[in-house]
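pasting for ref
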Amino acid sequence: MSESKQPSRDSQRAKLVGARLKRVEDRRLLTGRGSFTDDYRPPGLLHVAFLRAPYAHARIVQIDTKQARAVAGVVAVVTGDELERSVRPMRAVSTTPGYRVTDWPVLAVTKVRYVGEAVAAVVAQTRYVAEDAAELIAIDYEPLGVVFDVEEAAAPESPLVHEAVDSNVLLAREFSHGSAILGLSHKEAVDHNPSRSAGTDATETLTLRDRFRFRRHAAVCIEPRSYIAEFNPAEDSLTLHSTTQCPGVVRTAVAELLGMAEHRVRVISIDVGGGFGAKSSVYPEEVTVCALARMLGRPVKWTGDRREDLMATSQAWDEVIDAELTVKRDGAIVELKAEVLADVGAYSVYPWTAGIEPVQTVSFLPGPYHMPNYWARARAVATCKAPTGPYRGVGRPISTFVMEGLIERAARRLVIDPIEIRLRNYIGIDEFPYKAPTGIVWDLADFAGSLLKVRDLLDYAMWRERQAQARQQGRLIGIGFASLVELTGIGSATSAAPGMPLPAGTEAATVRVDPSGTVTAIFGVAAHGQGLETTLGQIVAEELGVPLEDVRVLWGDTDVAPYGTGSYASRGAVMGGGAAIMASRAVAEKVRRIAAHLLETASPTSIATEPRTVIGDRTEPRVRLKEIAKAAYAGLKRLPKGMEPGLQATCFYDPYYGTASYATHGTVVEIDPDTFRITVLRYVVADDCGRMINPLIVDGQVCGGVAQGLGGALLEEVVYDPSGQLITGSLMDYLVATASDIPRIEVGHLDIPSPTSLGGFRGVGESGTIGAPAAVANAINDALSPLGIELGELPITPLRIFEHLVARNRDGGTQRKSSSG
């Protein structure tokens, strides 16, 4: 081999970004050595139990706490009237025009608005004593009319959940693009008669109308919420250990609500057993524990049980969507219209507001398709149920379910293959950057490549043959697809919750080479199971040319980390990774300059690196990183003239718009014609998260997201009765997917680096959950098409299939029953 073709030492060094490495945090977690909030037990710890409202809507007439206070071991009993003197109510504000701001007291004051709302707090030596004492609190309630149905709640004559505002509609927002006429032309459930035209000739277009319903969902993290607060009166400082995804957000909120200086509040969140967005909000229990610790001068702890988790942790989805799609006879999309009505529960979740879910639904509804004309309106409506908030995907599982459902309905009516109709409407790879009808800018995506990869992985032609054979035998097999696009790692140009003044556009990293030559990297983003300790460590190690084991990654401590809001919106790898690259490169440049000085080499650009060693002139001599680090901290005498001592850098990263992540899901299901039991036979995903940092972790993220999406498609539903009582208050009633329910998931990747994010990274945490409900629903409807029914409500259960079939038979098979359920 000639000299010109020999690889340099840099290229010979093993690349860490892109390597399938086992997660470094798993050794700690799998051997029971994790550092979870509930594990922390400071001296003098007290425990809190909350008395929760038994009514969905009632006025608080009187509270008698005498018996509870008299119980041995009880330290304090606090009500909302007492706590509001020192704690401000939570107010999720927004600059969106017409948004109605409502107060959420951390303990109910004048009335309760959902079953499970905290009314009083008992502090005792043990949780058992606190729970027993809480049962002795006597409360006189005056029941009020329950605001239950979201459509009735949106009506002007509905009783108000919050009397301080003039409507239960807390937010309304419209999008309009092209020549779409405002409003739907038909607000009933379905019109399957392809007679209406969007053009001049009724034979040229087909309009499909349907009502879609995505039922309420719970996050069911393996670790329920837990908080421990300690107050130091000598320093007037508060330390909160919290199961939060967003330590920075919580610190700002607690300081504001308690009237403290922010630098006096410290939030620690190390190991968190799942978050899925539900742990990105600030909760009444969290603030109450802090207030009690300050009041009593002792550490105070609360850990929710599963019943409290299902009752009082923010829930998800729960939207009704009336949608209308007009296409030409060749399948080309002409127009999309949609009305979104979101049941956001009793309060506007803090700080994300009631608009986070429905506004994102209409923002992403056009999906990966050309949309010449688009109109949509979203309304967030208060009811007497637990508040809804962010959940994995935020709006996009619903928008994908609706858009992809309409696309496949159009394919069936027009007798066009569902793959072909998508290929005719996709935004082309040569059209990026592309501005969507809602103003979102997509950087780069190969939607067609993703779909075709799924087609090949699934062996689509073979399954169509098997489906035809199965139908001749009376078996119901269906094939379904779903394509999606999402913003990830959003920067300052885009808000996670439109109109909400949260400084969420940047993220920071501090990278420090210690005198021994090892590296410490500290981040504002927080880990809650997604493997950030490994992936961010890989980035730093590769940039500095050191082994992964020489990098220690720290996060989740607002007193240690540079300012950051936390982990949500698939921002960990994009934002944290970008900040890691910037800070690491700043340190690496200083390493090269010091090395050049020590080796008396003229130019730092001639310095190369290999593990633990820096090489001059890419040959000899060489100097160890440990020697460089010692020189950096030894003072000016050993450094180049004018260089500041030390070897660390803090950098803030802002990708401005963020980057697009996209995927296509394909699945095959079989439905038992007697019991209507649904079995997923195949599941394939073609995903593009840009430059993959760790493919093993990427596959885990995709598969975990699909598992949650399958639960939402087939099993999971939060159910209230008309009086507002929670029916699904345990895991015997709220069904989550288990290992036996999840098929083998095959994941393929496109690996197209993002042109807008530093490192080429795209987020991957949510795409599995976004695509799975739509793909499964489409496969089920494909399987049921010989029976003449289509379902637009999730989850799809055997009972719902049976009910639709009964309705079809009752109607004589001439008209499909509304899928509104």
